[in-house]
Design goal:
Methylamine Dehydrogenase, Chain H; single chain; five-stranded mixed β-sheet; mainly beta
């Protein structure tokens, strides 16, 4: 009798399948700040923050309890992240020079053990792109990405490179718009002979879109040259012939001025005027802490620039703004 009651039952394949689904190991939560963070971005519209790590992970944080994780196929450091504001999409640039597009997507509901489970929102990679090399030239150096600029329209990504070229990617398709590529040679041909001197312009150090005129961007080269470029018209509107090694650029909110920061610890204010092809001299140049200072790596905003200088703009700058 006891032997009959406790004998082993036959294997139920459906039961075993459900057990595997219910008891399978899966990572459900990570605690604490990401290990070895290397890049940061913020979406002011959706109020999301993204953090990239040296191991190739991307973490997106929202309200308390809202957290998404994405992993690149290769464990390569994330060096830049840029949100497409309000779209639930972001771009990541890896140390291997590849650009990746991520998207917050909703999964479909599924049946588990006869019960219907609601779909979840996940961070999913939907595309990637790597710049092609130029024939006969070491592509690892000339097309290595130095700076990314997402235009306000969110349909075009501007890419500055080590070789001085500027490339444009269509979004969200991540397709290269070859006809809009701006090689350094084209810029060099527009320079005055005395400024050219057979020297390279160096890598692209900064890309900044005009705050009032969409599709016009400042392109800053390491040597000190700054170009105001019309993307749609494919033409140079103005040249700013700086002579000090460039670190960064930032626009004044009206678009009448911009500031360039330099490797000697100084900064210069430049006036943007229509019809003035070449600008040889800035409105003002200042080294706030004397000679032999550390480089001013970046001005995050015009307000930051104003905080770094005196409480008031110089008389020359005020004069330009009042025009």
């Amino acid at each position: 009798m006891m032997k009959f009651r406790f004998r082993r039952q036959g294997t139920d394949t459906q039961r075993e399948k459900i057990k595997q689904e219910l008891f399978a190991f899966s990572k459900t939560v990570e605690h604490g700040f990401p290990h070895q963070p290397s890049a940061l971005a913020y979406d002011p519209e959706l109020q999301l923050m993204a953090i990239g790590t040296k191991a190739g992970a991307v973490k997106v944080y929202g309200a308390p309890g809202v957290e998404f994780t994405g992993l690149h196929n290769d464990t390569t450091a994330v060096i830049q992240i840029h949100f497409l504001p309000g779209q639930g999409r972001l771009l990541s640039l890896l140390d291997d020079n590849s650009i990746h597009l991520w998207e917050l997507t909703a999964t479909s509901p599924r049946q588990v053990g006869g019960a219907k489970r609601e779909g979840a929102v996940i961070l999913q990679e939907v595309g990637s792109y790597s710049l092609p090399g130029r024939p006969g030239i070491d592509s690892c150096s000339t097309t290595r990405v130095t700076v990314l600029l997402l235009l306000k329209s969110c349909d075009l990504l501007c890419i500055g490179t080590e070789g001085g070229g500027v490339y444009f990617l269509d979004l969200p398709s991540l397709s290269l718009k070859a006809s809009q590529t701006l090689p350094q040679d084209q810029v060099t041909q527009s320079l005055p002979e005395d400024y050219r001197c057979g020297k390279s312009l160096g890598p692209v150090e900064s890309l900044q879109e005009h705050p009032r005129q969409a599709g016009k961007i400042l392109i800053g080269y390491s040597r000190g040259l700054v170009v105001l470029w019309d993307v749609s018209g494919r033409q140079i509107e103005q040249l700013f012939l700086g002579k000090q090694q460039l670190e960064s650029l930032v626009w004044e909110c009206s678009g009448n001025l911009f500031v360039s920061s330099h490797s000697d610890g100084g900064y210069s204010v430049w006036a943007v005027a229509s019809g003035d092809g070449n600008n040889h001299q800035p409105v003002s140049s200042t080294i706030p802490y004397g000679e032999k200072c550390s480089p001013v790596s970046v001005f995050a905003s015009w307000n930051m620039f104003e905080a770094c200088q005196s409480r008031c703009l110089t008389a020359a700058v005020v004069k330009v703004l009042s025009k």
